[in-house]
Fold this sequence. Notes:
Blueprint: H1 5-32, H2 39-66
Transmembrane segments: 6-29, 41-61
Keywords: Membrane, Transmembrane, Transmembrane helix
Amino acid sequence: MYITNGIIGLMALVLFVAGPLVFSTIVIIQRYTSVIIGNDILLLACIVAVVQLICICYLLWNGFRKQSWLN
């Protein structure tokens, strides 16, 4: 499958919303309630945040490399 900037951008957009929302929800639930979230879900939230960071960094790097904002 050919990965384009559009696909990476769509992934980054989805993860930009989902990553922080999931991570902050888990932190709020653990901090203000007696519910203890397992380490599996916390690890999953961290993985989503890392994938989000990689997608955004790739978009920035590719955008500056091709200077696509000038075209």
